Amino acid sequence: MSETTNVAIACQGGGSHTAFTAGVLEELLRECDWDEEFELVGISGTSGGAFNALAVWYGLVTEGPDRAADLVTSIWDDLAADEYGDRLLNSWLTSLNRLGDSGWPLPRISPYQVPGKEIGKERIREVLETHIDFDAIPVFCRHETPELVVGTVNVNAGVFETFVDEDVTVEAVLASAAVPNVFEAVEIHGHYHWDGLFSQNPPVRDMMHQPPERKPEELWIIQINPQELEGEPTTLEEIADRRNELSGNISLNQELGFVEQINEWVAEGKLPTEEFAQTEIHRIEMGRDYHCSTKLDRDPEFIAELMDLGRSQCGAFLDER
């Protein structure tokens, strides 16, 4: 085992709720000793989690942990709805989404029926390209840098598809966040891609397939959707909310089941320790319930609240260690 602990971080998707993840990551980057205690060997993300994973990776490989911490918060500052018109639109969309979950008979419109450019997607592209030089990503992909993984689903092939390291383009990140009822699919290499929430949320297995000296000894999951629920959902809103949470966790638990199976086989001596290693799984959870309609909410105060919660939950996680 190396002197430092090899760590992989997986960032679950969940729209605006992944501002919580940004707060967690900022705290991890500023408070952990990434020179003597930990080495980041991989970071993955889906949907909003992909924004965070990309920002952390790019900041680390270009300048280091402090730059990565600044970058992940700057991206969310820019994504927040801070202008008057944007705030009105944000409030309208959030309210409309909540009404739909309440059972109101609202008209349903395909994103392909909306005239003009996809304003939301173009806004995300502009923010990402302001902070990230995507042309430079292949230059920084070296053996000693962390692996970067972004999760999507290939609509045409009907399979999960991840983009790794130099294959992470702005189109791949936009595809990972392309919610089908909000955004048009993103075409990459002749195939159309949707939001990675349908697939590996977040990707884990890709980060396990590394050389022996780079295999993760610990996997830190930043989890948006609560795993457990007390009581029974009875109203249409409660049922819709819980279904949303469960659908977001199914793929995560499948990914973690793969890691747990490897751990078991290593412990039983069925796999050679020269090629396989046991990986401890740790979760950093929100610990607070928000209605699923707020996953579209980019109100600056709400984003700041989520980031503060992330810092607090990360502090508790580090204290427990």
Automatic annotation (TrEMBL):
Lipid metabolism is among the record's keywords: yes
Superkingdom, taxonomy of origin: Archaea
Lineage summary: Archaea, Methanobacteriati, Methanobacteriota, Stenosarchaea group, Halobacteria
Domain PNPLA: 9-208
The entry's keywords: Lipid metabolism
Protein name as it appears in the record: Patatin
PROSITE patterns named in the record: PNPLA
GO biological process: lipid metabolic process
